[in-house]
Design brief:
Elements: H1 9-34, E1 39-42, E2 48-53, E3 60-64, E4 67-73, E5 75-80, E6 83-88, E7 91-95, E8 99-107, E9 114-120, H2 123-131, E10 147-151, H3 154-165, H4 173-190, H5 195-199, H6 206-219, H7 227-233, H8 238-249, H9 253-270, H10 276-282, H11 288-299, H12 303-313
Antiparallel strand pairs: 1-2, 2-9, 3-8, 4-7, 4-9, 5-6, 5-8, 7-10
Amino acid sequence: MSDSPAIPDTAIDQAQAQAVSLQQIELARLIAQYAVTDGVHQTAIAPLNVVRLSQPTLPNHALHKPALCIIAQGQKRVLLGEEVYIYNSAQYLVVSVDLPVMGHVTQATPELPYLCIRLDLDPRDIGDMIMAGELGPRKTEAPARGMFVSEANSSLLDAMLRMMRLLAEPQDIAVLAPLAMREILYRLLQDEQGGMLQQIAMNDSQAQHVVKAIELIKRDYRLPLRIESLAREANMSSSSLHHHFKAVTAMTPLQYQKQLRLHEARRLLFSEVGDAATAGHLVGYESPSQFSREYNRMFGAPPARDVARLRSVGQAQVSPA
């Protein structure tokens, strides 16, 4: 009895592409159901947020927390340092560490709004999976960039759809949402770029030392940065800190601190907390002229004009998604 003929690879690829397309359509429908107005909406599942925007947005600077962002409709452009990441419904974006970024929606209309899921990630959940031996051998490669874009696949979208469907069954959320979250993490970690997610949860990895340095900079961002002290507290040499920190964040520790300071100053000014000189002083600048100069360089306008522009379009400072 002869073997059945093999299914051509092209037919398999077409079937997989069709499955992904149908999943994206359902995902868009569910997001629209729980995000009926423009903005970021938290759902009954704590780490799960849905986003709807009916028009392109101005560039928005913010500190992006670790998260998975899946676009079901529309397109987004994100800048990390000088690197540009563009993704749409064919891809997803993962941020594995706190990163100062600039992002803006580039494709959105009232008829076809931008629809996105942002699922906040907790490295401790990944650590639990490593400790349970669920991820195979530990990866030992050098730290990679803390943000990446990958192609959406049916397995990941299927797990995300099951999490979204739970919103209609609130009595099941407490039991089933953690299971869906665990599968989503597993699918991300199996991605060809998922090694960075695993590294940040591994004890004594270089990536985890970088995470420690990031936490220290965030804690003391108003104070002068001493590289030797930072490296010592992060259990790294100064040269290793500089090399691996830039590998993960695309910037030096000093550049990272500067972005944190300017982001916070912008938030203070947008919230009408003092004038530019006061805001600059509150975030650690001793020189008002240096603050205004660096603010202008980063945001493209002096503090007063920049904040007036933001208020004129009603664009709140929210984490990009």
